[in-house]
Amino acid sequence: MKREIIITSDGSSTIHLPEWDEQYHSKHGAIQEAKHVFIKSGLSLFSNKNISILEIGFGTGLNSFITFLEAPKFNLDINYVGVEAYPVATEEIEKLNYVSELNANNFENTFRQMHQQQWEIKNEITTNFTLTKRKQFFNEINDEHAFDLIYFDAFGARVQPELWTEDVFKLMYNALKDGGVLVTYSAKGSVRRAMLSVGFKVERLPGPPGKREMLRATKL
Ligand SMILES: C[S@@+](CC[C@H](N)C(=O)[O-])C[C@H]1O[C@@H](n2cnc3c(N)ncnc32)[C@H](O)[C@@H]1O
């Protein structure tokens, strides 16, 4: 499938898939979306503890990198697991402008390391942040009571409806600890109903720029 690097409205880059008319992030701002959906509405619920995060769709590594940068503000030690079946090519990663757009030039090597590290190995990025990248299909996830927070960042239900089903949210529910939280940019009614049907409590929250709402699901 054809792929292009584009610049979103906040100046940060993303990957565009013309055949699907779909992007890895919001066209209204990749960094803004990641900060709003995953950090403000998810990570910021936690402070002063060790937490485990599961990311559904490691992709460009933007969520992982922003989480690494934001973690000290919340005094968190993070065990981060990114699941991805179709890794982004190194040549594409090199064209992304996240390090400069996030004013994170001191951590340029960290972003590179996140991409270069081996799959399936838990890697200590710092004493407060470990990253494991798992090359795996989402429907193969079989963790139980393992995660405090899930970043559900699959391509949209319009292009991959099979990833927004009760079956997949059941796997997410099982993977969370009691009280664990899943956040996603989607606010679709069918997605909300699939979450409710597997037992999540679901909240509609204000969305990032360009989107009225998003969803946050909690395992009670
Ligand atoms: C919206 S993008 C993720 C963006 C990513 N979180 C980031 O910050 O760049 C969705 C990702 O899911 C991956 N993907 C699509 N279908 C998948 C599947 N069935 N199993 C695992 N990964 C899949 C894609 O390769 C893509 O990287």
Describe this structure in words.
The chain has 220 residues and is of the alpha/beta class. It is 25% helix and 29% strand. A hairpin with a 5-residue loop joins strand 1 and strand 2 (13-17). The model has no long low-confidence stretch (mean pLDDT 98). S-adenosylmethionine (SAM) is lined by residues 24, 57, 59-60, 62-63, 83-86, 137-138, 153-155, 160.
Keywords:
220 residues; alpha/beta; 8-stranded mixed sheet; 3-stranded antiparallel sheet; 7 helices; 25% helix; 29% strand; globular; binds S-adenosylmethionine
Bound ligands, each once: S-adenosylmethionine
- The helix/strand class is alpha/beta
- Strands of the widest sheet, in order across it, are 6-7-5-4-8-9-11-10
Q: Helix count, per DSSP?
A: 7
**How big is the Rg?**
16 Å
- Global outline: globular
Low-confidence stretches: none
Task: Characterize this entry briefly.
With 220 residues, the chain is α/β, with parallel strands linked by helices. 25% of the residues lie in helices and 29% in strands.
Write the layout of secondary structure elements.
Blueprint lengths: L3 E4 L5 E5 L4 E2 L6 H11 L9 E7 L5 H9 L6 E7 L6 H4 L4 H4 L6 H9 L6 E4 L2 E6 L12 E6 L13 H10 E9 L4 H9 L2 E7 L6 E7 L1
Parallel strand pairs: 4-5, 4-8, 5-7, 8-9
Antiparallel strand pairs: 1-2, 2-3, 6-7, 9-11, 10-11
Helix pairs in contact: 1-2
